[in-house]
Amino acid sequence: MRRQLSTPTAILLGSAMIAAAVYLGLRHGPAAVAPDPRAAAGDASHRGEPAPRAGAAEGARAPGEGAPAPQRAPAVPREEVERQAARALDARRPALVERCYKPAIAARPAPREVKYVFNLTFDAQGRQIARGIIEDRETSRPDVTACLVAALPPIAVEPPGASVRVDVPFSLP
């Protein structure tokens, strides 16, 4: 009589083999891939020109070219961008109170104050490229938050010269 593996034992052995394969595969890091010389030369084969030698594209490239550009520090301090964003939010506060807060308070009076933290990211020209809203648990009002997301247009600040992310506290009323 032959003994067969039970299902749990087979699962355990299979998992161990997969874990070993993943471990051995990830030990050495990603393989270095040589860049395609056609891409660097503008794909000459599509223009009817002979393709360059494999090393020609790398030799013609300036030192440091092709590598990711280092992140520049903003010309305007992060604190100043945060103040500008807070002023922009405060300027929209009266309209947001009328459109979002007052109807919600009329329907359900508690909690009276709603607190948020806006995560705002601005590009080098000062345009908002990302926005997130964190609600305070104690004063959470999902109806007001949904209205804020829909009613608040993108915010702009003076060009900081580089991408900047700031956290701005905000509350209603």
From TrEMBL:
Residues 51-76 have a biased composition (Low complexity). It comes from the Bacteria. Residues 35-80 are annotated as: Disordered. This is AgmX/PglI C-terminal domain-containing protein.
